[in-house]
Amino acid sequence: MFRDFEIGSSQEAQKSPLPPKAELQWWYQYYFATERGRAGYDKYRHDFAKLIWAIASPKWNFDDATFDRTAVSFNNPDHVGIVIHNYRFRLGLVAGESKYDDLEKRLVEGPVITVPSITLEGDANGAPHYPDANTYRNKFSGKYAHRDITGGVGHNLPQEAPQAFAQAIVDVDRLSG
After folding, report:
1. Residue 100: burial class (beta carbons within 10 Å; 0-12, 13-18, 19+)
2. Residue 141 CB coordination number (10 Å)
3. What pLDDT is stored for residue 19 in this prediction?
4. Are 126 and 154 in contact (CB under 8 A)?
5. Which of 34, 49, 76, 176 lies at a 20 to 30 A Cα distance from 26?
6. pLDDT tens, position by position, 124-138
7. Which residues contact 51 (CB under 8 A, 6 or more apart)?
């Protein structure tokens, strides 16, 4: 199983400040909390996303063609609204969809994951997760492994380290057997 664990993925966790250097990495969350941020993202979504890619994966020298294949999705008429609402929700500035409140509550409680799992973290992730890989361990009750992927790998593991990512898929399948 693969799941992207973000620091402060719940509204309650977002209330706790991080050290200044870590807060700096999340600057855009606060920008998106403002109408200026929404308008800026709407107007410059292509350039903004490219900047975030570069920050989250600082050693990945992706080319324009690679980025542009994803950037097409930014032209969806709902894209800006969904992105902005997501970040505002994380900060507790807007309500979520009430029909999902029970599911949200269960996710925030952090249910233990029972299926075989492998977590991955790039050594150059500009959007880092837990600083200590041992923090992940208590989220899993089944067979589990954590792998730090080295070599300047950032946030986009499938594209930056396709071999390591594919090997983790093969290996987690073997853990299931």
Report:
1. exposed
2. 12
3. 81
4. yes
5. 76
6. 988 766 666 677 788
7. none
Quote the CA–CA distance of 147 and 119 in Å, as a whole number: 6
CB 113 within 8 A of CB 4: no
CA–CA gap between residue 150 and residue 164 (Å, rounded): 10
> Which residues touch 71 (CB under 8 Å, ≥6 apart)?
46, 49, 50
Predicted local confidence at residue 15, as pLDDT? 77
Q: Rounded to whole angstroms, how far apart are CA atoms 118 and 168?
A: 7
The confidence score (pLDDT) of residue 131 equals 61
Neighbour-count burial of 152, counting CB atoms closer than 10 A to its CB (0-12 exposed, 13-18 middle, 19+ buried)? middle
Mark the ranges of the chain whose per-residue pLDDT is less than 70. 1-10, 128-133
> Quick one: tokens of 59?
């050693």
Closest CA to 104 of 117, 93, 90, 125: 90
Return d(Cα 137, Cα 132) in angstroms, integer: 10
Predicted pLDDT at 1? 32
The pair of structure tokens assigned to 99 is: 């029909």
Q: Yes or no: say if 168 and 120 are a contact pair by the CB < 8 Å rule.
A: yes
Q: Are the CB atoms for 164 and 147 separated by under 8 Å? A: yes
Q: CB of 123 within 8 A of CB of 151? A: yes
